[in-house]
Each structure stands twice: as structure tokens, then as C-alpha cells.
Amino acid sequence: MLRGLFKGFKDLIYPNCCLICKIKIPPAHQQELICAGCWDKIEQNLPPFCAKCGRHLDRQAIEKNACQSCSRCQANYYFDRAFSPCQYTGTLKKLIHEFKYSGRDYLGKPLGKLMHTFIRDYHLPIAHLDFLIPIPLHKSRQRQREFNQAEILSQEIAREFRQKVLTDVLIRVKPTQTQTKLTFQQRCQNVEKSFAVTKPELIKDTNLLLIDDVLTTGATSNEAAKCLKEAGAKKVLLLTLAN
């Protein structure tokens, strides 16, 4: 966290440059972190959405109401529905990388804005949900990174909609290897039984919103949703920044 604060302080002292294209941001917009041109290049995730993972459906997939990836893998998802405001490409992919791996925790505010704007635009039923739950990091990973990006995004959404975030109910009980080069089945095996619920009485018969930064195959989010359902949660929706 100190690393992120130092970088944020440095950006206040020196003239801001866009994190993506590096051009100088005009004085009237010095509080901004990304120039308007790069911000406009963020690719939105537009309807129609896959009923399983929330990705945009192309014309061929509309009849099945599921994207090619979900139709192909035939995954049994434990979350009831997934949503993402953006596509994990270009500008946003770079921003998420800066957010997670370069200590820029202050990027949570503009990135969180993308999520709560999506909630409003598409009328997600956040008022009918009991709690927000961020996907947790294992304690060893969180020590290394100094913050959990999913928790920061959850707090941004919670402030906007006056919701409560539960940060100590779902925990990661075993470290897992990076998922980047694994197949869907390997990812599922990698994260199997990696979560635990510490206070099942708090989530029994509740409707929950699970928060993470990126949905790729959905293996991690699915395992987390499974753990929550087995602990008594009634409904688990998933919201990620990108997919």
C-alpha cells in the first residue's frame, strides 16, 4: 500500500502524463490519470450478453443464448449470472495490469466507476443483494501485492450504492499457481477447494454479489461461488471489470 501511495504522491508533484499513451494531460484535467483519448478507447461489453459468463454474443450465438466458449466447455457454473462492463483488451488490459502489478491501487476509483456506471445503465438488481464479496487473494499473494484489487473495486461499488462489503467471510486457504497457461479443466483442478467460508451464518439464505477484476474461463469465480452456495448462500451473481 505504501508503494501505491508514493506513486500517487509523485503524480501530484510532477505534471501528470497519461498512464497509457504518456502524453501530458492538460492543466485543467491534472487530476485525471488517463487522457480522454485513451479512456474513449476502452471497449465496452455490449448486449446481447451470454446467459452464463456475460460476454457479448455474436449473431451465431444468440439462438443458444450462450457464447461459443460456454457452449464448448459445457461448464456447470455455480454463479447464477455474470456481468462485465468492458472487454479485456487494449487500453483496459493495460490499466488492469498497472492496477494489479505496478502498485497503482488508486486506479481503483476510475475503474470502479466503470463498474457502477454499468450497474446503473443495465439496472443490475444491486438493491436486492445483501452483501458484496470480493474474490480473496491468498495471504502470501496479498503480502506481495500489498492490496487486493477485487476488494478495492468492491469498496468503490459499495460506496456508490451504500452496500456492505464482507471481506473476511470468504478466504483463500491454499495458494495456487498462475492460471495463465492452463486449460479450463486444469484451471478448475488448480483452484479446487482453494476457498473456505469462515462465517456461514452471515451468508445463509442471502443474495450475494461476487466481485473480481477479470473473468477469463471463470474457473476461480466458479469455485468461489460453489463455496458460497455450499455454505448456504441462496443466489450468487458475479460482476467483473472485464471479460
Task: Put the structure in a nutshell.
38% of the residues lie in helices and 12% in strands.
Structure explained in plain terms:
It is a single chain. The chain is of the alpha/beta class. The protein folds into 2 domains: 1-41, no CATH class; 43-242, 3-Layer(aba) Sandwich (Rossmann fold), CATH 3.40.50. The protein contains 10 helices and 6 strands. It has helices spanning 2-13, 36-40, 68-73, 90-101, 108-121, 139-145, 149-161, 184-191, 200-203, 219-230; strands at residues 81-83, 131-134, 170-172, 195-197, 207-214, 235-242. The strands form 2 sheets. A 4-stranded parallel β-sheet has the order 1-6-5-2, sandwiched between helices. Strands 3-4 form a two-stranded antiparallel ribbon. Helix 5 packs across helix 7. The mean pLDDT is 88.
Return the average pLDDT rounded to an integer: 88
- Give the name of the CATH architecture of the largest domain: 3-Layer(aba) Sandwich
Q: Major β-sheet, in short?
A: 4 strands, parallel
Order of helices and strands: HHHEHHEHHEHEHEHE
Structural class by SSE content: alpha/beta
Number of helices: 10
Can you tell me the number of structural domains?
2
| Residue share in helix | 25-40%
Rounded Rg: 18 Å
Return the CATH class of the largest domain: Alpha Beta
Instruction: Report the oligomer.
Output: single chain
Any chance you could write out the topology, listing elements then pairs?
Blueprint: H1 2-13, H2 36-40, H3 68-73, E1 81-83, H4 90-101, H5 108-121, E2 131-134, H6 139-145, H7 149-161, E3 170-172, H8 184-191, E4 195-197, H9 200-203, E5 207-214, H10 219-230, E6 235-242
Parallel strand pairs: 1-6, 2-5, 5-6
Antiparallel strand pairs: 3-4
